[in-house]
Amino acid sequence: MASSTPLSLIILVTLNIQLLLLLLPPQTQAQTPSAPAPAPAGPVNLTGILDKNGQYTTFIRLLVDTQVDNQIENQLNTSSEGLTVFAPTDNAFNNLKSGAINDLSTQEKVQLVLYHVSPKYYRLIDLLTVTNPVRTQASGNDSNWGLNFTGHGNQVNVTTGIVTTQINNALRQQFPLGLYQVDMVLLPEELFGAKPPASAPSPAKTPSSTSNTKTNTSAPASPTKGNGASGRNVVGWVLSLGLGMICMGALS
Ligand SMILES: *[C@@H]1O[C@H](CO)[C@@H](O)[C@H](O)[C@H]1NC(C)=O
Ligand SMILES: *[C@@H]1O[C@H](CO)[C@@H](O)[C@H](O)[C@H]1NC(C)=O
Ligand SMILES: *[C@@H]1O[C@H](CO)[C@@H](O)[C@H](O)[C@H]1NC(C)=O
Ligand SMILES: *[C@@H]1O[C@H](CO)[C@@H](O)[C@H](O)[C@H]1NC(C)=O
Ligand SMILES: *[C@@H]1O[C@H](CO)[C@@H](O)[C@H](O)[C@H]1NC(C)=O
Ligand SMILES: *[C@@H]1O[C@H](CO)[C@@H](O)[C@H](O)[C@H]1NC(C)=O
């Protein structure tokens, strides 16, 4: 009896040492490969990024004409929340009814552009589960001018109540700016919904002949999961090893 107490103490001490030895290496290894690239030091140039991509000339012109680009630059500099911008392609603008943008007043153009900007940085993966509606820069202190996001698997859709489109292409996904391509202009209900069209009510929308061809669903690469499970496996292995040793100790 007297000899069994020191034996179990020795087992406990070796167990602890083994735990330390086995658990430390995975923790230190995990830090190096997942280190994100350091953020560029200079201010973020939204129109510069859009310009480089070549297919956002209409949106850039609207940003500049409405001076929302200055506002965004200031906010990127000062906001602790960051920003998310949804950039419609030139095709998206071309697909609008002619005059849809030109008929807007200056104030309405500003509101339309601000509607494509959310005062918070979202990664795509955040938008999969975000609480709707998401505020935009056009939102006042009420809940109007919001965007709704729905996620299915890796796919995020955004809806305004008037248009729904997929978000496939992340032009930039690094704080403070999330910048995503949208293939439709996000038309807010507040501008395009309630107002009955000035012209004669056109008979129901003809089923879009092009929608079926839009099958480019380049799903965003899912971020590789960290190997958090391996740590638990090691613990389980050590525990069972320890149990085995305790049994052997009891038998001897
Ligand atoms: C941002 O990019 C645009 C277009 O490339 C350029 O004209 C402008 O000078 C840049 N602004 C800053 C602050 O670098
Ligand atoms: C943003 O901050 C940088 C440095 O902090 C400054 O040089 C630049 O003028 C600022 N831009 C705006 C639009 O405030
Ligand atoms: C929004 O705020 C303004 C003052 O900042 C106030 O007069 C107005 O009632 C508010 N609207 C709502 C819907 O809370
Ligand atoms: C957006 O989501 C909110 C909350 O679920 C819902 O009340 C609202 O009707 C939705 N609007 C649209 C246009 O889908
Ligand atoms: C997402 O939007 C596309 C159209 O852009 C539509 O075909 C698809 O059904 C939507 N998915 C969901 C789950 O709403
Ligand atoms: C799909 O992508 C291919 C190449 O990536 C492009 O040539 C084609 O125009 C795209 N189609 C649509 C409907 O976007």
Would you give an account of this structure?
The radius of gyration is 28 Å and the shape is globular. The longest helix is centred in the first third of the chain and has 28 residues. About 23% of the residues have low confidence. α1 runs antiparallel to α9. A 4-stranded mixed beta sheet has the order 2-1-7-6. A 3-stranded antiparallel beta sheet has the order 3-4-5, with no helix packed on it. The chain is built from 9 helices and 7 strands, in the order ααααβααβαβββββαα. It has 252 residues and is of the alpha+beta class. Bound molecules: 2-acetamido-2-deoxy-beta-D-glucopyranose (6 copies). The site of one 2-acetamido-2-deoxy-beta-D-glucopyranose (NAG) has 4 residues, from α4. The site of one 2-acetamido-2-deoxy-beta-D-glucopyranose has 3 residues, from loops. Keywords: Cell membrane, Glycoprotein, GPI-anchor, Lipoprotein, Membrane, Proteoglycan, Signal. It comes from Carya illinoinensis. This is FAS1 domain-containing protein.
